[in-house]
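User: Let's play a game. I give you a shape written as tokens, and you guess the letters that built it. Ready? Here's round one.
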């Protein structure tokens, strides 16, 4: 059992992918509001840094160095929480990656690994913790979908398909749970200033180089507020609301053609391109990844 709690709540929020980007900003919001944290990430050094940072908010922080690419990791997380006697009141399935490239040119193993992270681990955590939430008739789950869940995305096909799964699953469960005090919220961010593009080999694309990027803190705030209000879905940002409105008026083939264009190399001059995230937590994780790969 976790100890040394001196905050005003015994509630815990479990957040995957909590060391950078939107996940980091969501964890910060929970900590500022006095909620204890269970932070899940696979970068041990960065996980320790973030855990120490959030303890300054006088909350209990449990750091779990788990790799959700591992098929056993999600069950291990649940088992460890049960063994510690920690009740997870908020589950945030934030961890996710994509891979740019033609489907047939990306190794099958990479596709399967991404589905393990983006779909299977998310589904497993949702299923396991949802049982406990239903049994006590309380709890909230936030699943990270994406605006790309609303369109086919050539050269980003598996990621878009995985986010379509997340959105569909979340909205279906929200209806199933209407007669309970348990809620599920899908957050649909758009292009956001995180390390996502680097991990997905998208740095040279029009998608990354020729569009405005949202502030991860603002995206996290949209998701957090929707989660706390029990909304089933939230599209982050006015620009993304307009984008989804446009996607809904166009055919799938037209949307796919537009997405395909955005995945092509940019025409911007080299000295005018972005190369790093301006989000401090995301850039810090990028530095550690690069150091480990040297």
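Assistant: Ready! My guess for every position:
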């Amino acid at each position: 059992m976790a100890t040394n709690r001196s905050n005003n709540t015994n509630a815990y929020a479990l957040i995957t992918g909590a060391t950078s980007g939107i996940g980091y900003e969501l964890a910060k919001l929970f900590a500022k509001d006095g909620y204890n944290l269970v932070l899940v990430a696979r970068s041990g050094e960065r996980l320790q840094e973030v855990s120490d940072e959030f303890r300054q908010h006088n909350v209990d922080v449990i750091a779990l160095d788990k790799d959700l690419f591992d098929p056993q990791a999600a069950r291990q997380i649940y088992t460890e929480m049960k063994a510690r006697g920690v009740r997870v009141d908020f589950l945030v399935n934030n961890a996710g990656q994509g891979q740019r490239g033609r489907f047939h040119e990306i190794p099958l193993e990479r596709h399967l690994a991404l589905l393990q992270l983006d779909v299977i681990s998310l589904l497993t955590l949702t299923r396991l913790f949802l049982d406990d939430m239903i049994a006590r008739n309380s709890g909230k789950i936030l699943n990270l979908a994406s605006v790309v869940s609303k369109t086919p995305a050539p050269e980003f096909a598996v990621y878009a398909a995985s986010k379509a799964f997340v959105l569909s699953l979340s909205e279906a469960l929200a209806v199933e749970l209407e007669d309970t005090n348990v809620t599920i919220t899908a957050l649909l961010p758009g292009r956001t200033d995180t390390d996502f593009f680097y991990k997905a080999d998208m740095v040279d694309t029009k998608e990354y180089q020729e569009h405005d990027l949202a502030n991860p803190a603002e995206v996290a705030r949209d998701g957090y507020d929707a989660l706390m209000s029990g909304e089933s879905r939230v599209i982050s940002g006015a620009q993304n609301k307009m984008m989804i409105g446009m996607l809904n008026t166009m055919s799938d083939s037209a949307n796919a053609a537009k997405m395909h264009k955005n995945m092509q190399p940019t025409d911007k001059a080299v000295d005018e391109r972005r190369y790093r995230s301006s989000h401090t937590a995301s850039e810090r994780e990028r530095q550690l990844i690069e150091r480990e790969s040297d």
